[in-house]
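QA checklist item 7 of 12: single-chain prediction sanity check.
[x] sequence parsed
[x] length recorded as 381
[x] structure emitted
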Amino acid sequence: MKFNTKVIHAGVQPDDQTGAVMTPIYQTSTYVQAKPGDHKGYEYARTQNPTRDVLQAQMAALENAKFGVAFGSGMAATDAIAKLLKPGDEVISTNDLYGGTYRIFQQVFAHYGIRFHFVDMRNVDEVEAAVNEKTKLIWVETPTNPMINIVDIEGIVELTTDKNILTVVDNTFASPYLQQPISLGADIVIHSATKYIGGHSDVVLGIICLNDEAVYEQLKFIQNACGAVPGPQDCFLCLRGIKTLAVRMERHCENARQIAEFLTNHTKVGKVYYPGLQHHEGHNLALRQMKHAGGMLSFSLKDDSIEAAFKVMQKTNYFLLAESLGGVESLIGHPATMTHASIPLEERQKTGVLDSLIRLSVGIEDAEDLMGDLEQALAQV
C-alpha cells in the first residue's frame, strides 16, 4: 500500500455496528461488562478507547512501525519516553532543539539524576565522542527547530549497534510523508501531532511509533499509569487531518521552496535556512532521507536587531504571529522570545538563534500572496 492510499485506509475500517465510513468519536469514560473481567476489550477510557486505537494503528502504519501510542500532547509523549530512563542514565541530544524538549530535559528529568549532553548532531563524530557506557538514549531532531539543520539518521543509528542505546527521532517537522525514520533504523519516532498530523491548528496531541514490543509495553504502561491520554475528539481530529496529509505536505513544501528562493534574493535578508536550497549544508543529506525539503524555514535580517525582527513580524497579514506550526495557515514567529525562550541566551547563540532570526511555518495559501505579504513587511525595515 503506497502512502497516499495509507492515509485514507491504513488501520481504518468502517464501523462494525453502523457501517460509518469515518471512525466514530467514542465519547465515553467507561464500558459495560457482562461480569467482572468479561467485556468487549474495553474497560476504562484512560486505558483504551476505540477512536484512539484507530489513530494509533494508522500512525504506526504511516511510520512503517508495528505499534503506536498516543498522548495528550507532544510534550506528554516526550515525558513518557524520558520515563523509560532511570537515575544515572545519560542522553545525547542535538544542541539545536525545540525549547520545550530542552526545558523538560534540563528542568524536570535532570533533577532525577539523568544527565543530558547537547552536541552538534550535524557532525556524527561529535555524537560518537559523547557516547559512553551510561548512554541509554540518543534524541534526534531533524529537521531541527529552529535552524532547520539536517541530521544523518542512519549515521546516528550506526553508533548504537550492539550498545543497548535507543535512538529516538522527533519527526514533527517532516511528518511521515517526507521522512520515515524507522525505515532508516531508528527505534522510536515521536510527533507533536498538533502540527502537520492534525494540520488545522485545532488539536493538541502527541504520538509515539515503534517496533520493539517490550518497549511498547513499557510505554503503554506509562500511558495508562500516568494518564496523559488524548480525548477521543482530539483523536478524531487527527484522523481527519491525516486524510489530507499527503496533499497538504506537497503544497507546504512547494510554497516553502518558492518563499526560500524569494528571501534568498531579498536585499534586506541576511541568511535563509532551508534544506531545499543548494547552498544549505544539509541539502544533499535531505535529498537522501527526505521526500521533499519541508514547509519550515528560518531567516535572519541584515539588520540583526530584535527591533527589526519585531517590526517585520508585526507587519505581516497572511503570516500570523503565533506559536506552533504545521497548520494550513502560515505562521511567523520569533524563536528567541517564543518557542526557544526557555533555552539560556548563551546556548541559543551558539546554535545561531539570534535576536533577528525569524521562523516561518509556510501554509497552503497561494505562494504569490505569501511572498507579497513578506515583501511589504520587509519594506517596513
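[x] summary fact logged: The first helix runs from residue 3 to 9.
[ ] second reviewer sign-off
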